Amino acid sequence: MEKVKKGKGKLIIISAPSGSGKTTIVRHLLSKVEGLQFSVSATTRAPRKEEKNGREYYFLTPEEFSKHIAADDFVEYEEVYPGRFYGTLKSEVERILGSGGHVVFDIDVKGGLNIKKIYRDQALAVFVMPPDTDELKNRLIRRGSESEGSLEVRLSKAQWEISFSGQFDIVIINDQLERAEEEAARVVTTFVAS
């Protein structure tokens, strides 16, 4: 995939297994780090009840997603679950860097590592680690959006994703949310200032 033109802005990659708290940490970063703007990913999954198209995700049909792949519109994309695609549109990264901002991604592990490979030192890759699998399972159950089958798929996938944590620049263990949020804010603030 062709690289999006680099700007002076930095890219912050936040990856974690589903239910680890990455979205909560990204929201915290957006409220604390000046110039940080959220990169809205595209997905073929259906929106959850509180989600809005263009805010959390660009919700695309599989056909629309395929057309974007064919047009080379993505910086990266992955089939994260069977038949469920996620990707980062080049236009989204260009929009934020072009405005002089810093990009923050709430992204799956493979997508995050792909962005890190492209942008290298311009990007900081942060892995949010759940305290343990029992707590991760409890968080997913409390979310209320998982069937028994999808819960097992997510937990199995989490083990696989955790195996990539050593390839990230920073690992933050989210065993206490406030501490994890503050650690993330400190690390990201230092990185964008460098």
Mean pLDDT: 89
What is the CA-atom radius of gyration, in angstroms? 16 Å
Question: How many E strands?
Answer: 9
What is the CATH topology? Rossmann fold
- Main sheet strand line-up: 2-7-1-8-9
Helix count equals 7
CATH superfamily: P-loop containing nucleotide triphosphate hydrolases
Topology:
Elements: E1 11-15, H1 22-32, E2 36-38, E3 41-43, E4 57-59, H2 62-70, E5 74-81, E6 84-89, H3 90-98, E7 102-106, H4 109-119, E8 123-129, H5 133-143, H6 148-162, E9 170-173, H7 177-193
In short:
The protein has 194 residues and is of the alpha/beta class.
Write structural notes for this entry.
Mean pLDDT is 89; it is low at 1-6. It is globular, with a radius of gyration of 16 Å. By secondary structure, it is an alpha/beta fold. Helices cover 43% and strands 23% of the residues. Helix 1 (22-32) crosses helix 7 and helix 5 packs across helix 6 (148-162). The protein has a single domain (11-193), classed as P-loop containing nucleotide triphosphate hydrolases (Rossmann fold, 3-Layer(aba) Sandwich), CATH 3.40.50. The chain has helices at 22-32, 62-70, 90-98, 109-119, 133-143, 148-162, 177-193; strands at 11-15, 36-38, 41-43, 57-59, 74-81, 84-89, 102-106, 123-129, 170-173. A hairpin with a 2-residue loop joins strand 5 and strand 6 (84-89). Strands 2-7-1-8-9 form a five-stranded parallel β-sheet, sandwiched between helices. A four-stranded mixed β-sheet has the order 4-3-6-5. The longest helix has 17 residues, at 177-193.
